[in-house]
Write a structure and sequence with these properties.
- The chain is an alpha/beta fold and 181 residues long.
- The chain is 26% helix and 34% strand.
- It has a single domain (11-178), classed as Nuclear Transport Factor 2, Chain: A (Roll).
- It is built from 4 helices and 7 strands, in the order H-E-H-H-E-E-H-E-E-E-E.
- The longest helix has 21 residues, at 51-71.
- The relative contact order is 0.27.
Length: 181
Amino acid sequence: MTGTRGARVGAVEAFNYVVAGWCPQRNRGSLGREPLAVAWSSTPGGDPMDSAAESKRLLERDAQWAAAAAEGRDIERILEFWTDDALVYPPGLPVVAGKTALRAYVQASLAIPGFHITWSSSHIRLSEDGQLAYLLGQNAVTAPGPSGQLTTSRGRAVTVWRREADGEWRCAVDIWNAEPA
């Protein structure tokens, strides 16, 4: 489909047209390599950290989040993977800040007929102190365009994760854009 400037409009643009809402595009599939993990050597208390195990744990947590989002039924389950102060940067839209705004964003997205999101993260880098990490990945979002036709857009994403006081990893920053044509 063609936009007003003659540019091809993908699912992200179509989705953004339908609702100024949520689509943390993240089908973070393979970037052509095995998962990469670069990690810290100790926790803030000085205890040694098994960086390979921690990387695996975070990638599994991200996969659980992707599964919950792809299922598209349990809004609270989807939200529990974000920090309370999370910032989401959807393409072409204002920043979505905090759980209240994220809840409205997710609800609006899931209410769109035909909406579907998937992602897979494949690269991870952990901070030396073990409190932050970022993941790189790919995503796919299906949503109706302005004409109502379902379109799927593939993208790439970066998420920044923070280890919370309860020891669980949660996404603090989520940003994505379309894959190059």
